[in-house]
Write a structure and sequence with these properties.
Elements lengths: L1 H19 L6 E4 L6 E2 L2 E2 L9 E3 L3 E8 L3 E10 L7 E6 L4 E4 L10 E9 L5 E11 L5 E11 L2
Parallel strand pairs: 5-11
Antiparallel strand pairs: 1-7, 2-3, 4-6, 6-9, 7-10, 8-9, 10-11
Length: 152
């Protein structure tokens, strides 16, 4: 019984180390705004609710030199009839961060989401996703950034 427990703990430790290696970690910018759920349920499509529409959902930085820090601003419009709130932004890699608006975006207004990519530890073709959670339906939008990182 003692050996089984030790094997289990060793297996869990190895699994945790493998899971945390590389750039599989996420970064999350939590904004203290109203959340996207109401009474524990994700809201259905509300014809009078907020609607987020990005001008573009993918941006390619092209060929960059390793070590460069690059930023791109994704613009969007609230096409709905109620205020749009970004509740969180999550990136697929710790090398990508974002700066979302903290104030609600009124109907018809534009907003900006700045995404920054740090190529310091990257090489070759890189594609990262940024998940944007809002009070609109559907609750998540996915943005992508790409780069071809070359050694100096």
């Amino acid at each position: 019984m003692k050996i089984t427990t030790q094997i289990l703990l060793l297996s869990l430790s190895i699994g945790l180390m493998v899971g945390l290696s590389g750039c599989k970690k996420t970064t999350k910018e939590v904004i203290h705004n109203p959340v996207t759920v109401k009474d524990g349920q994700i809201r259905d499509d509300d014809p009078d609710g907020p609607k987020i529409q990005f001008d573009e959902s993918n941006y390619n930085f092209g060929t960059v030199m390793q070590g460069e820090r690059l930023s791109h601003t994704f613009t969007f419009t609230n096409k709905g009839k109620k205020d749009l709130v970004i509740s969180s932004v999550t990136a697929t890699c710790g090398c990508t961060t974002s700066t979302p608006p903290r104030a609600p975006i009124r109907p018809g207004e534009k907003g900006e989401l700045k995404v920054t990519f740090d190529s310091k530890t990257k090489q070759g073709k890189v594609k990262n996703s940024v998940s944007v959670a809002t009070n609109a339906y559907p609750t998540r939008s996915i943005l992508t950034i790409e780069a071809d990182v070359k050694k100096p």
